[in-house]
Write a structure and sequence with these properties.
Structural class of chain A: alpha+beta
CATH superfamily of the largest domain in chain A: Dipeptide-binding Protein, Domain 3
CATH architecture of the largest domain in chain A: Roll
Helix content of chain B: over 70%
Oligomer: heterodimer
Radius of gyration of chain A: 23 Å
Strand content of chain B: under 5%
Low-confidence stretches of chain B: 1-7
CATH architecture of the largest domain in chain B: Orthogonal Bundle
CATH class of the largest domain in chain B: Mainly Alpha
Number of strands of chain B: 0
Number of strands of chain A: 20
Helix content of chain A: 25-40%
Largest interface: A-B, 45 and 43 residues
């Protein structure tokens, strides 16, 4: 199934946000305005109640968002079912754990040199592919080349393809690989831990996909279902269930019905308005914090937003609690105009911004815009949270005498995307440096606010070359202070991930990375 | 279902051919109808082709904002869709492939279209077939009971229920059935189809609710038409004569009335079945049934032109064939037109 390669720098906006943390398209489509009382009875933090987990059985996972475009290519997943598939068949060198921290996987360690240009990857011993072949440095090199070949990188490998030096990236010994970069990059581990970086053998064939995951391939029908079986030679905790099926659904209601009827055991991206019907009828809910955000974006190079006082005033107009309560049906955490909340460098000490109409008014009148009137661009393809929060912002702005008129674009991600003066957007969980690189630097692919601050760029460049984490975090906190004071984003909150599973399912824990405990179905028993 | 309102008149086209032998006349009639069918399909193929590829730039539609960015993909699609050729040449190539059973290659996942759609086509076909097998006796049976109790209480009750069912959209019926039998009230039947690699009917209980939904959607309509035809026939002179000769009412109803009322019924049933075969997207969505309708919607969304073309042709073909069979049956069951052809 040769898929067209997409140039990393030109990949479509939709693809990027789907890749970058995935699976959110369906949830963004959740009817966020529906009143929802929260997940009363069924909301459990962990599926593993009392008692030991039993082995055997079949786990059927229901997923929405798939289509006949579905793929099983480890390095080109797009939709939620694609991501669920690759997360069970393949494994990257490192993992994002449930707390969005880096953990070892196929690599025991990945260590940078002092200049952050040479990275030493030590492979775990005894890891074998589904066909019995041990994982070797050659496989790692093959995978790197498949993902990040500068001539035809996959969308997921775009960032790495710009910095990796394939001439010098080499095998050192039977269990060591050196990854060499053209330019220093101190957080390479973030890129290597993405689910789009699954290690595959040198003779990889997508028609018979072989990986190292806890499940091995049995069959796959795009748009319908795939069947995987337990891999007995798995290096980590072997799966409880004998078979894993991933079943496509075109409609979340049908998926919920299947769960309630006991036909499937898990489903991801449960729309908030269906939470009650699941928990009241015996299903269990799995709720997890995420770092996914639906910001308002102001172009810092265009009037009236080129005046920092106007930007700060609009940030003060925003009633973040009301946004979460209504646009996210209460399922979100508070935002402080800063992204990457799980990053160790996250500037959590900056004071939480609250609605302050008086100060907003005085800032506006100082800027000469006491009767400001602006257009806010939105669209259904951002997800249903966007139009809902746009409507709320119109009301909140009225209190400060600002007239906001909403303009709905179809499609939003069309030719005008990245040039709207005041608009909205949709981003998934990422850490600070990868996010800033695409959205806050002058060269960034998706610099929608046209943010271009030399001091900020200098801080980012220095941080990228700083391997000492404490020093790097200080630099990044300085960068965040700049965004907090002058940036073009209004980040009012981060949405919560809600998934559901059947009453008999045990062992699924919430994860900040991907839905349903990062789709690690080997921990689930039925 | 609105398109059923205008029933084709099967007898219209049959001018009594004079002075020929019966079998020759039949062969001529069938040949003529087959010719018309082929002509219809050819016209459909032209329309489908124009609508999908010849208007505007299909690649621009497929790639959207990536059109300017992704030159490699543009080149690859241009080659796959042969866009360097003239539209006429492309049409002839496509038609030629179609006639040889080569439906092209899917744009969405690069698999042969025939392989991609075959299981969905079969799934839809089986669903419609089972629905038809259930629908026909149910609809005719209800019509007969209703006609038998004309304007008495059972008839009124039946007509009220039928009218209510006819007014319910089929997906509402489906959702209610799922809540009743699968999730909320009872847990007797599977709520959705989980076919895996096999076919839905590998687990027969999966078929119950989709079939029930389709039958409930179509049966009221067929039933009401058959009932009104039956009532018309029951009032006719020859039925009155049969009664006067002392034939029991049951036999009158079955032999004299039903056989004469069956022809409009066949026409309605055939159109309804063709409509069902075209894919009932709502029902397929509610039950996650892997049929034609969901696949067609998916393909349109993916701008998967070869799949859309193939499915459109199949649906058109089903309409033509089902109508042909219905006309043939109608003529065979109507002595007047039967003799008109072969006399």
């Amino acid at each position: 199934m040769p898929e067209p390669t997409t140039d990393g720098r030109n990949l479509s906006r939709r693809q990027l946000f789907k890749y970058s943390g995935g699976a959110l398209a369906a949830v963004a489509a959740a009817d966020a305005l529906a009143a929802c009382g929260g997940g009363g009875g069924g909301s459990g933090s962990s599926g593993g109640g009392g008692g030991s987990q039993a082995s055997g059985g079949v786990l059927i996972h229901g997923a929405t968002g798939g289509s006949s475009k579905d793929t099983i290519d480890p390095h080109r997943p797009v939709t939620a079912p694609d991501i669920a598939r690759v997360s069970n068949l393949f494994e990257p060198l490192l993992f994002w754990d449930d707390n969005y921290q880096i953990a070892p996987a196929i690599a025991e360690s990945v260590e940078p040199s002092a200049d952050a240009k040479t990275w030493t990857v030590k492979l775990r011993q005894g890891v074998t592919f589904h066909n019995g072949k041990p994982v070797t440095p050659e496989d790692v090199l093959f995978t790197l080349n498949r993902v990040a070949n500068p001539k035809s990188p996959t969308s997921a490998g775009g960032a790495l393809s710009e910095i990796i030096d394939f001439d010098k990236t080499k095998k050192v010994d039977a269990s060591t690989v050196n990854i060499v970069l053209h330019t220093p990059y101190a957080v390479l581990q973030y890129l290597l831990a993405e689910y789009t970086f699954g290690i595959v053998p040198t003779d990889f064939d997508v028609k018979n996909p072989v990986g190292t995951g806890a499940f091995k391939y049995k069959s796959f029908t795009p748009g319908q279902s795939s069947v995987f079986t337990k891999f007995d030679g798995y290096w980590g905790q072997k799966a409880f269930v004998d078979e894993l099926h991933i079943q496509d659904f075109s409609d979340p209601n049908a998926c919920v019905n299947a769960l309630l009827a006991g036909q499937i055991q898990t489903m991801d991206n449960l729309p908030y308005n269906l939470m009650d019907s699941v928990s009241k009828q015996g299903g269990k809910l799995l709720q997890a914090e995420t770092g996914a955000w639906i910001p308002f974006t102001m172009r810092v190079d265009q009037a009236p937003f080129s005046d920092v006082r106007v930007r700060q005033a609009l940030r003060l107009i925003c009633d973040r609690k009301q946004m979460i309560a209504q646009a996210l049906a209460g399922h979100g955490t508070l935002g402080n105009d800063l992204y990457a909340p799980f990053d160790p460098a996250f500037a959590k000490d900056l004071p939480q911004r609250e609605q302050d109409i008086d100060q907003a008014k005085s800032l506006l009148s100082a800027a000469g815009h006491s009767d400001l009137s602006v257009q806010l661009f939105t669209g259904d393809d951002i997800g249903s949270v966007a139009p809902a929060s746009a409507a709320l912002f119109v009301q909140q702005a009225k209190k400060a005498g600002v007239t906001v008129s909403v303009v709905k674009k179809t499609p939003f991600y069309g030719d005008d995307y990245l040039s709207y003066p005041f608009a909205q957007d949709f981003w998934n969980t990422r850490n600070y440096l990868p996010q800033a690189a695409v959205s806050e630097l002058k060269r960034g692919t998706y610099n929608e606010t046209h943010f271009n601050n030399p001091k900020f760029a200098q801080l980012i460049a220095t941080a990228q070359a700083t391997t000492d984490e404490a020093k790097r975090n200080t630099l990044l906190q300085d960068a965040q202070k700049i965004e907090y004071d002058e940036g073009g984003y209004i980040i009012w909150g981060f949405r919560q991930q809600v998934d559901a599973y059947g009453a008999k399912v045990q062992g699924i824990k919430p994860s900040k990375y991907l839905p349903l405990g990062s789709y690690k179905f080997q921990y689930a028993s039925v | 279902m609105a398109d059923v309102a205008v029933l084709p008149e099967p007898l219209e086209e049959v001018a009594p051919p004079k002075g020929r032998h019966g079998s020759v006349a039949w062969i001529l009639w069938i040949a003529r109808r087959l010719g018309l069918a082929v002509l219809t399909l050819w016209l459909v193929s032209v329309l489908v082709f124009i609508a999908t590829t010849a208007l505007g730039d299909p690649i621009r539609a497929i790639l959207g904002k990536d059109y300017n960015a992704d030159k490699a993909r543009v080149a690859q699609l241009t080659e796959q869709l042969n866009l360097n050729e003239s539209a006429v040449k492309r049409y002839l190539d496509w038609l030629g492939g179609l006639l040889h059973g080569d439906l092209g290659t899917s744009i969405a996942n690069q698999r042969p279209v025939g392989q991609l759609i075959s299981s969905n086509v079969l799934n839809s076909f089986v669903l419609v077939l089972i629905s038809a097998v259930v629908l026909i006796p149910v609809a005719f049976g209800i019509a007969m009971i209703s006609a038998n109790y004309r304007r008495k209480r059972p008839d009124t009750v039946i007509q009220t229920i039928l009218l209510a069912l006819a007014g319910l959209p089929e997906f509402v019926t489906g959702i209610l059935l799922v809540a009743l039998f699968s999730t909320t009230v009872f847990h007797w039947l599977p709520a959705v189809t989980i076919a895996g690699a096999g076919h839905p009917w590998d687990q027969p209980s999966v078929m119950v609710l989709p079939v029930a939904t389709l039958v409930l959607a179509v049966a009221p309509y067929v039933s009401r038409i058959v009932r009104s035809t039956l009532l018309e026939v029951l009032d006719s002179d020859y039925v009155e004569l049969a009664r006067l000769k002392g034939i029991p009412e049951k036999v009158v109803l079955r032999k004299h009335a039903l056989l004469n009322a069956v022809v409009p019924g066949i026409q309605v049933v055939s159109l309804q079945l063709a409509w069902l075969a075209g894919g009932v997207v709502f029902v397929e969505t509610v039950f996650n049934y892997p049929g034609i309708g969901a696949l067609l919607v998916d393909s349109v969304r993916n701008h998967d032109i070869p799949v859309v073309q193939a499915l459109s042709m199949i649906i058109a073909g089903v309409y033509v064939v089902v109508n042909l069979i219905a006309d043939l049956l109608s003529i065979l069951l109507t002595p007047r037109s039967r003799t008109a052809i072969s006399s």
